[in-house]
Specification:
Two copies of one chain form a homodimer. By secondary structure, chain A is α/β, with parallel strands linked by helices. Chain A has helices spanning 8-17, 39-48, 64-73, 86-97, 112-120, 163-175, 200-211, 224-232, 247-256, 271-275, 296-301; strands at 3-4, 20-23, 30-31, 34-35, 52-57, 83-85, 105-109, 124-127, 150-155, 180-183, 189-192, 195-198, 216-217, 240-244, 260-264, 286-288. In chain A, strands 1-16-15-14-2-5-6 form a seven-stranded parallel β-sheet, sandwiched between helices. In chain A, helix 10 (271-275) links the parallel strand 15 and strand 16 (286-288). In chain A, helix 4 runs parallel beside helix 5 (112-120) and helix 6 (163-175) packs across helix 7. The longest helix of chain A is centred in the middle third of the chain and has 13 residues, at 163-175.
């Protein structure tokens, strides 16, 4: 049973209890292109109290650098090394978790943001935005030469997906022994301003089905993302809290990683999802309406 | 336990026992672009004895008409109404099995052969080879208007697959109540002259994963194909045999449909697959090395 936060003392005690705050972004800090009311003040308050702030997002289409421009546009202070996206997590997974040699190349289905993260970690990338792969010309194996240095295929959401990319990724995964298969997230769909579209997990489903094995997934709720954070940020798990709006990604991610969790109701999850007869089995430690609720602390503190 | 055919009497008895002969093509009649030795003579012999001959293929990229040109090129007598491909089966399923009104439109992921079969059954098709959908420009729902007359999405192998096609198909399947979801086959891969590529089933895996439900599949071993044959050909199931080279498609297809089955070893299945320690649980009624083995009958008959 979750603790429903409602009064100033509870918020003050929450603030005292945790030194490191992991935040999901969309549905928590902002919604689409609008800030959640009070979020900026609360983030500033946390920084003022020397709390460590980390942003953890399943958005794999942007590099951390380009994701930061979103923070800038919305007037939220954020530093590149505080942002953990699943594209970055995929790159760190390869470089620091499984120590794939930098002489290995990575075949990419995904955006230039994903390519950028992999390049930043020192890998040479193939596919992705390469015009030779962004083509609707028929693909024939007769003209394809397998690059023996490819050591991994990373698949994320790719608006420029082609049969050529699926086919080349398939060749690497089936013809190169121990070629790693990474998916930046398992999301079946993703929300846009005008409706829902197939997500990154749907595209990797092609390779999953064709080769008959599952990828290592670097997005929440998988722990690869937390491994990446651990590799770069030092934190005490008993004094760390994960704040999110989705039970099956954010909250599950925190719980699996041994962290306490705070659910906000400004995003996907509704009151009914946690209290109704069909309530989720995933139960956050704390629930509050909005991250903005923590503003009461500043009154108390000043 | 299968009956292993080897002598003339057994082949003669087989010929006497069955009036309708269903044949898979690739691996049975031909292999790639080469005929299986003796296949033409055996097919001629069957016709000479007034046997009904039906070709049943999971190739969904060609219409029956264009598939017939393959028979012509290889010097095999075949008539359009004897050929049942999974593209045709998808069209007949919509028109004759579920009686989708002809005022309904069909959104296609697939080739012009698939479009042709749907059009032949009287449907207006969207997607497929339409240049507006064969584009790598980013897809936005802002500029998309849902055609309320779409009653089905049919997905097959499509070398010109795009995110736009996946996205539009997804809209129809999720926003139009009771929109039918058809896949022309479940093949994870398919063989080409130069190696293996992702199959039609891999592309429909995107929609399957994104919408969270399975399509009706019109390829073997699914019985929709047999329903289509039944709708057009009259045959006595006790005097009908399915001849194929694949246990999990051809032989299973025949068995599920209550037909006797003959496995040939000129295609995918090897001796080891049926007799080794890891032999398949799918056991054909008869096994012979090649369809060409039936030539012995002509000696006996003449």
């Amino acid at each position: 049973m979750s603790v429903r936060l409602s009064n100033t003392d509870e918020y003050v005690s929450l603030l005292d209890k945790y030194d490191t705050w992991l935040f999901d972004c969309d549905g928590v800090i902002w919604k689409g292109d609008s800030m959640i009311e009070g979020a900026v003040e609360v983030l500033n308050l946390l920084r003022h109290r020397n709390k460590k702030v980390v942003f953890v997002t399943n958005n794999a289409s942007k590099s951390r650098r380009s994701y930061r421009t979103k923070f800038d546009q919305l007037g939220v202070e954020a530093h590149v090394d505080e942002i953990y996206g699943s594209a970055y997590a995929a790159a760190v997974y390869l470089s620091s978790v499984i120590n794939l040699p930098k002489t290995k190349r990575v075949y990419v289905i995904g955006t230039s943001g994903l390519e950028e993260e992999l390049q930043n970690e020192g890998f040479f990338v193939l596919g992705g935005s390469d015009p030779a792969d962004c083509t609707l010309e028929p693909f024939s194996l007769e003209n394809f030469s397998l690059d023996p240095d490819v050591g991994a295929v990373v698949c994320g959401l790719d608006q420029m997906i082609t049969y050529t990319k699926f086919s080349k990724a398939f060749q690497y995964l089936t013809r190169i022994p121990n070629c790693h298969f990474i998916a930046t997230n398992e999301d079946s769909t993703y929300p846009t301003a005008h409706g829902t579209l197939p997500g990154g997990g749907s595209l990797s489903a092609v390779l999953r089905y064709a080769i008959g094995r599952d990828p290592v997934c670097t997005g929440k709720p998988q722990q690869v993302m937390l491994d990446c954070i651990k590799a770069k940020v030092s934190y005490d798990p008993t004094r760390t809290i994960m704040v999110g709006d989705r039970l099956n990604t954010d909250i599950l991610f925190g719980q699996t990683g041994g962290l306490d969790t705070l659910l906000v109701l400004t995003g996907v999850t509704t009151e009914n999802d946690i209290t109704g007869p069909d309530a989720s089995p995933i139960v956050p430690k704390f629930v509050t309406n909005s991250i903005g609720d923590l503003r009461v602390i500043s009154t108390k503190a000043n």
